[in-house]
Design goal:
Blueprint: H1 2-11, H2 37-51, H3 54-73, H4 86-147, H5 152-174, H6 176-187
Helix pairs in contact: 2-4
């Protein structure tokens, strides 16, 4: 074994470490920095929310007026952007070039949330419709079942009919002589 190592050293050959397949590889260094997409998305939403406020417009207006006023009224040695205000234009373009993608990112995230909410609303509506249809069928079956049950009005009318019949029977039982005479006349 020692002779093999000496031979490798002499030829410049290095021994590769043995690769184990049962263990994960060590993490590699990445060229680009890693970031949390959710944290970046939340930050972009906060920035987009601020850019869409009146406060931002007021502060931006104050900054531009101060910039222009300083570069017009200040002594020549202290001015940093002369009359065509090229540096101001550059700064506004830079701000706009960062604001537009951040606003788009915030809108995409909002669209994703809206899509999820819409899907949840659709599923809730489907459940509500199914529940409503079930309750409608149950009510229809109850109505059909009640059609075969004696109601208070029906029982009242039956009792009134029975009372009339009893009154007629009692009235006819109270006058037996008239009843017999009526029979003789009818029999002839």
């Amino acid at each position: 074994m020692a002779t093999e190592e000496r031979e490798r050293e002499r030829t410049g050959e290095t021994r590769r470490p043995r690769i184990r397949l049962d263990q994960p590889r060590p993490p590699r260094r990445k060229l680009l920095p890693e970031y949390d997409p959710e944290a970046f998305g939340r930050l972009s939403e906060r920035i987009a929310r601020f850019l869409g406020t009146g406060r931002f417009i007021v502060w931006m207006t104050i900054l531009i007026i101060a910039w222009v006023a300083w570069n017009i009224a200040a002594p020549r040695d202290l001015r940093f952007d002369q009359y065509p205000f090229i540096f101001l234009t550059l700064m506004l373009s830079l701000q706009a070039s960062y604001a537009a993608p951040l606003i788009l990112l915030a809108q995409n995230r909002q669209d994703d949330r809206d899509r999820v909410n819409l899907e949840q609303d659709r599923k809730q509506n489907e459940r509500s419709i199914a529940d409503t249809e079930y309750l409608s069928r149950e009510m229809a079956s109850l109505r059909i079942g009640l059609g075969e049950v004696a109601t208070r009005d029906w029982i009242r009318s039956e009792l009134q009919d029975l009372l009339k019949e009893l009154e007629e029977q009692r009235h006819s039982a109270a006058l037996p002589g008239e009843r017999e005479r009526g029979r003789d006349v009818d029999d002839r």
